[in-house]
Fold these 3 entries.
Entry 1:
Amino acid sequence: MGIFDAIVSGVLGGGGASSPMGNVLSSILSGANQAGGSGGGSGLVGLLSQLRQAGLGSQVDSWIGQGQNQPVSPQQLGNAFGEQQVGNWASQAGMQPHDFLSQLSQHLPRAVDAATPDGGPPEGQMSV
């Protein structure tokens, strides 16, 4: 089990990492199927950069830092990732895009928080 699978399992609970949503969330964190957005980098660093460029910097900073995670709406994530990428991920998870974004908005802040316990990415990743 990879580091992101372990993180997703902790966020989703038990076998969550092996669920369709868990598989996609793990892939999003690792950058395995990211749409080369204008974000700079891949994996967690590219993901966070893409979200910051979409105007979600304060939310991202709260997920990485200590304290309360700021929420993000499904619409904000949809705008950040784009309709095509969201559609691809939703299809992989076997969900409708709206339902996928709703779940992603709940799980992504906790997953990023868990992946950056010391204000940075897991060992072997570039710094955020």
Entry 2:
Amino acid sequence: MTSIDPTCMFSNKPFSTPLAALGPGSQPPDFMSKPREMSSYRAPSLPEARALAAHREALDVLHRALVALQRQAVGAAVEPIELGHLHDADCALVDQMLGEGEVAAQVAGASGVQAQESVFAGVWRVVYRDGGMVVRDTVEVGAFPRAVAAAARADGRLIPPLPSLRPADTINARAVLEELRERTLAWRSGDPAHVVNLSLMPLSRADGELFEQQLGHGNVRVLSRGHGNCRIASTRAAGVWRVTYFNSQDRVILDTLEVGDVPEVACAARQDLDDSAERLQEMLQWVLAT
């Protein structure tokens, strides 16, 4: 019989990242563990039928997740599925059957949120903590966990006006910041993202210091492994994200600042949600047939 792993799917390891200046060939500091290979869909491991029969509440959670995916397909609003009432074994079975997908996200702080996408894209395990203790435990269906996106918005502020005097030794930061400030003032939710590519841009240490001063560090960190390795961090500027892509040797291949909603690379697309509904339905049909 396949064992049910009762360990929590989230660690308490904090996320941290400085917003350093990156010129061509530069390396940003680490802020998340480095995945070593491209992720692809892997069917979750399932217990034998006899084990599943004893965990009807866990199966009910998965049925409700399927209904939520189907409702999303027709544009209906869906609410998170609460897991607080489940016994540990049922909760562990939910984790086992959902598996671990391509995207993980965390809101830093003692009263934070941790989210892990399942192998069914757009189906998320979302845990809320207060003082290090779990206060809410859910499965959420959608493009990206709402609480994580809301935390990034709440943490943001307008980019302040730039100093009238140009700091010595800056090259491009001032122009970039003026562009970002203009775009954030004009941007509205649902607009296409505006991306500034830092990878090919000469940047000095003074540029990095000005970025730090004007943008700072937000409280949201995201790791996406869907098409290579991508690390995403919110800044303290409303709607501005740092998005950095790495190759298999963990070298930077694209480093950007992005104005918009949650960067698209972290979100489940409409087709992803449809595919997840189909796969989850197939898994549940297999369970009922056994």
Entry 3:
Amino acid sequence: MIDFNHKNPTEAINAAIDRGIMFDRKIQPRRNYLGGSAIGEECERKIQFKYFNVPEDDGKEISGQSLRRFAVGHALEDLAVKWFRAGGFDLRVKKPNGDQFGFSTFKDRIRGHIDGVFVGGHELLKYPALWECKTMAEKYFKQCKKEGVRKSHPQYFDQVQIYMAYMQLTDNPTIFTAINKNDQMMLHQAIPFDADAAQKASDKAVRILQACDAGEILPRISNDPAFFKCRWCSWADHCHNLTI
């Protein structure tokens, strides 16, 4: 029971909220496929851990606060759809039956769901055009603005390329929208189709699934557990203590 007579109930209330949303996450059905958004991940072993639903290291499980942050990101993406439509763009995000647009390949083991498709509106764009939206902390938003998606967020670039290929939306550039979570500043970048990048991403996904089927553990991104990307990884302890 929450003590509402306590001078500062914030911690107790947040703990109750986080327990609830973390429980909801745990009872969600696990994916049995490789998502298009994961294919661009740099470390192929990390992709395997996600595919096999390997539990995160002790103490590195996703927090309730992180889940709330993700939810805010999704809410901003929903708002962005309304903003585009208010601006005169015909942006479609669901089929008439309410399902998301998406694709499935490799015996339904590689799937992806797109954020939307521009089908008409201003002459600013060429139609149809894939739409991909990401929300970012200010640091990463500025990096994306300065360097472009391909350099600053290669995982997102590969995601866009494989979506364009499988959704057959290759004629016109994808409109990649980044939203700064701090001030809701929006950045829009046009990403042309890169057939070579799309093929490499697709081949990578198939190779990872074949390795999973064969019981082969793919190389980690670094053999040094102190490497910064390994230190941030939720499976670092499991990965670097794994004997193969």
